[in-house]
């Protein structure tokens, strides 16, 4: 299933749920941006290669195209709760080493999130917010060393945080920009839209 399909399915599902009376305080957020690996991700991959006998490692890792979707409930103008999904996109690691023609690892961090969001409206259009949450994540790496391919997968839970700003375009639609530390391994700069019901 592609990222576009996941986001589209999520938005349609929320639109259906939003027809209930309970949905008066509900909103949906969809964002995309840059998923950024912590330096520890590259260090850990370097260490794995060293343990495999590869020497003189010269490596780099690039950002992925991250997506984030959340269903939230606004209890009051200053406090909301959210449940959502995060995908870092592919964090592409490349390396060279003595005796190995090519080394690469495509790593993706994805999973569910629960978060509390505090909002401070600065005026009737502009607000700043902070959030703290707990994530249930899967990290998957497809590693190729020369012609040998392998897949490594692990699960982890952890506390993350974020902060950002939003601007109200009309009563129920706002644009948002945020920085989020998902876990110690990955963070993201995200830009998106929030729709209230």
Describe this entry's structure for a reader.
By secondary structure, the protein is mainly beta. The protein has one domain (about 5-195): Porin (Beta Barrel), CATH 2.40.160. About 15% of the residues lie in helices and about 70% in strands. The chain is built from 2 helices and 10 strands. A hairpin with a 2-residue loop joins β3 and β4 (about 80-85). The longest helix has 15 residues, at about 5-15. The mean pLDDT is about 85.
Write the layout of secondary structure elements.
Layout: H1 3-17, E1 26-37, H2 39-51, E2 55-61, E3 64-76, E4 79-87, E5 91-98, E6 100-121, E7 126-145, E8 148-170, E9 173-181, E10 186-196
Antiparallel strand pairs: 1-3, 1-10, 2-5, 3-4, 4-6, 5-6, 6-7, 7-8, 8-9, 9-10
Features:
single chain, 197 residues, mainly beta, Porin, eight-stranded antiparallel beta barrel, 2 helices, 68% strand
